[in-house]
Amino acid sequence: MAIEGPFWRAIAVFRVASLVYAAVLMAQHRGYEQPLLGWLVIGVMALWTAAATFAYAAGPLRRWPLLAVDLTVTMACLLTTPYVQGDQQVTLGSMPVPATWIAAPVLAWAVRHGRRAGTVAAAVVAAGELWSRARVGEASVLINETVLLLMAGWLVGHMVRLAKQAEERLQRAAEMEAAQRERERLARDIHDSVLQVLALVQRRGRELGGEAAELGRLAGEQEAALRELVSVGPPPPLGTIDLRSHLARYGSPSVTVSTPATPLLLPAEAAASVSAAVGAALDNVRAHCGHDARAWVLAEFLDGTVTVTVRDEGPGIPEGRLEQAAADGRMGVARSIRGRMAELGGQVSIVSVPGQGTEVEITLTA
């Protein structure tokens, strides 16, 4: 996985730094009985450091054979320590010839196969160091180094596991986002073509009557089913409501509701107020145009603004009638529509032409 890349690079840097540290320790210890053997071990470590760096950089090679060879070479270098030190190097706390370089395969096992593999590799290396130090009388200082190796193997494996899980979640989220974007694109295309054609067939069928009316009814059912299908998406954020679900309840044989394919998210209170204002406008249509009067509800979202339009083909509102109704105490439009939107900072525009119907436009910033 891509997330492993930085870990392998870090292990490569650790190998080089540990190699330099081991060489410095070898140069400082003049009491080794077999210094030539010690420098030979340092040479083997240098060659394997270069080989392992290139091998682990290639993803296909990061398998059990490479890990096994890595651990074997490290153990071989570690187990030469008693022969390099001899009987003279019995100073309490002296480092083995490879020094901290022995931790490299532990880290590699942990990164590749997780906590258990890292812990197993640490136990193997710790056993080898126990044998090495026991030969020169230093077994009493092993416990701290053993604990550190085991902790390194477990913790690094755990960190890599968490990183892989995070990468998988991120990948799934990216795939879901891409799928959602594609779904929204298809929904827009469907909304701009198929849904509009079905709505037109439904409206014209009802106007023509007869067999065409039945065709219009079927088109209306298919429009509703298709709109529901393309509208399915993730749940809205907490505290918000999709206005489309409110407006859909007003759909009927005499009321056509058209909404975008994408959610119209509003705070719950705002969505309820807009829905109530639309309901009040439709009540006015039924009261003044008849229960079977045709009406259309259109919801749109543009530049952060939600616009809901209620249109009918009734006789229209005579000039001055709204003002007269307010003066007479009939506050249906003033309170139920304009009042609700004023409380939310929205606007209401009413355009009516006698004999040509009325259009109520409700605008609210989302």
TrEMBL record:
Residue intervals of the Histidine kinase/HSP90-like ATPase domain? 277-364
Task: Note whether Coiled coil occurs among the keywords.
Answer: yes
Record domain DUF5931: where = 1-170
Keywords carried by this UniProt record: Coiled coil, Kinase, Membrane, Transferase, Transmembrane, Transmembrane helix, Two-component regulatory system
- What's the name of the protein? Signal transduction histidine kinase
Cite the NCBIfam families for this sequence. HK_morpho_MacS
Does Transferase show up as a keyword for this record?
yes
Spans through the membrane: 7-24, 36-57
Q: Where is the signal peptide?
A: none
Q: Which residues form a coiled coil?
A: 163-196
One Pfam family name is DUF5931
Its source organism is Nonomuraea rubra
GO biological process terms, semicolon-separated:
phosphorelay signal transduction system
Q: Which GO terms describe its molecular function?
A: kinase activity
